[in-house]
């Protein structure tokens, strides 16, 4: 093919990709393959864990692990109304250490003095983008460089304005849980992020939540379902995924595929809770 013909084919492929909503990674990557358990174990459990390779502890004997995460601006109102009472030492883990949280931070309205204070109290600060644009198509089709501007940029802002070593910001969450597939994960891998917590799962949550996936690395292909496309298809050794296990709320009959079920929600604030919203009611949901 001539140079002009090649250029035309590239433009045609890009146009078709845009037409059908396909995200093409900015660079070629290594397709993920089926887990090689022996090779993964040789890297050590802190570096590699295959998805779906869960603990052998019987379900009835497994301890409950609860992740407390908060998204968006870290504001004085949120601190006074929620964080102050929740993290004043009144609530502890079984080891009697005070509970702490991960805050996925955006730029607008964030009080960086509070970010600094809570980081020194032992909370984790992670990137949730600078702009948090409302257009999910923006995130779905964002380029590698675009993701870098948003997430690495947010990491730099936390470092500069909250006086925290930016190397301590190692986690990310995409706005609206709208991941960017390989473009997003390529950016995370190239910029020393350790994990992402954006990818929801219905097959390993919702009405089958007791079978929830443990965190895993993207050394190999994932068994996780992809309810919000695109999802990564390439391998990113050592990069962890913390699955967002879908919950089941109390809106019975709202899901046509399961008339006796409640609706699904990836975050608790998206769940419909009927009647009085007491802590006992929410716990039993």
Describe the protein in words:
Helix 4 links the parallel strand 2 and strand 3 (124-127). The N and C termini lie far apart (62 Å). Helix 6 packs across helix 7 (181-190). Helices cover 29% and strands 11% of the residues. The strands form four sheets. A four-stranded mixed β-sheet has the order 4-5-8-7. It has eight helices and eleven strands. Mean pLDDT is 90; it is low at 9-25. It has helices spanning 3-19, 37-43, 76-86, 112-120, 136-140, 144-161, 181-190, 279-284; strands at residues 69-71, 102-105, 124-127, 171-172, 195-196, 200-201, 216-218, 236-241, 244-245, 247-248, 264-265. The chain has 285 residues and is α/β, with parallel strands linked by helices.
Topology:
Blueprint: H1 3-19, H2 37-43, E1 69-71, H3 76-86, E2 102-105, H4 112-120, E3 124-127, H5 136-140, H6 144-161, E4 171-172, H7 181-190, E5 195-196, E6 200-201, E7 216-218, E8 236-241, E9 244-245, E10 247-248, E11 264-265, H8 279-284
Parallel strand pairs: 1-2, 2-3, 4-5, 5-8, 6-9
Antiparallel strand pairs: 7-8, 10-11
In brief:
With 285 residues, the chain is an alpha/beta fold.
User: Helix and strand succession?
Assistant: HHEHEHEHHEHEEEEEEEH
Low-confidence stretches: 9-25
**Which class do the helix and strand fractions yield?**
alpha/beta
- Strand line-up in the sheet with most strands: 4-5-8-7
Q: Report how far the terminal alpha carbons are from each other.
A: 62 Å
Helix tally equals: 8
Number of E strands:
11
* Whole-number mean pLDDT: 90
């Amino acid at each position: 093919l001539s140079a002009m013909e090649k250029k035309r084919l590239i433009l045609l492929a890009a146009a078709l990709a845009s037409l059908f909503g396909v995200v093409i990674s900015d660079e070629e990557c290594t397709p993920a393959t089926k887990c090689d358990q022996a090779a993964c174990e040789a890297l050590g459990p802190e570096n590699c864990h295959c998805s779906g390779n869960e603990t052998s502890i019987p379900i009835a004997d497994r301890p409950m692990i609860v992740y407390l995460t908060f998204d968006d601006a870290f504001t004085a109102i949120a601190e006074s109304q929620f964080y102050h009472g929740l993290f004043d030492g009144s609530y502890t883990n079984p080891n009697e250490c005070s509970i702490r949280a991960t805050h996925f931070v955006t730029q607008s309205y964030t009080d960086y003095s509070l970010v600094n204070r809570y980081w020194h109290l032992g909370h984790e600060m992670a990137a949730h983008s600078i702009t948090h644009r409302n257009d999910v198509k923006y995130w779905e089709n964002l380029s590698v460089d675009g993701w870098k501007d948003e997430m690495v940029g947010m990491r730099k802002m936390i470092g500069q304005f909250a006086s925290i070593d930016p190397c301590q910001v190692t986690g990310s969450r995409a706005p609206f849980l709208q991941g960017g597939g390989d473009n997003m994960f390529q950016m995370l891998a190239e910029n020393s992020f350790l994990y992402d917590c954006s990818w929801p799962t219905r097959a390993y949550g919702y009405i089958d939540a007791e079978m929830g996936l443990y965190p895993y690395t993207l050394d190999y292909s994932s068994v996780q379902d992809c309810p919000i496309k695109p999802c990564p298809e390439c391998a990113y050794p050592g990069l962890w995924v913390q699955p967002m296990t879908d919950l089941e709320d109390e809106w019975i009959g709202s899901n046509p595929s399961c008339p006796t079920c409640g609706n699904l929600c990836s975050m608790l604030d998206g769940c419909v809770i009927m009647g009085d919203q007491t802590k006992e009611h929410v716990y039993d949901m």
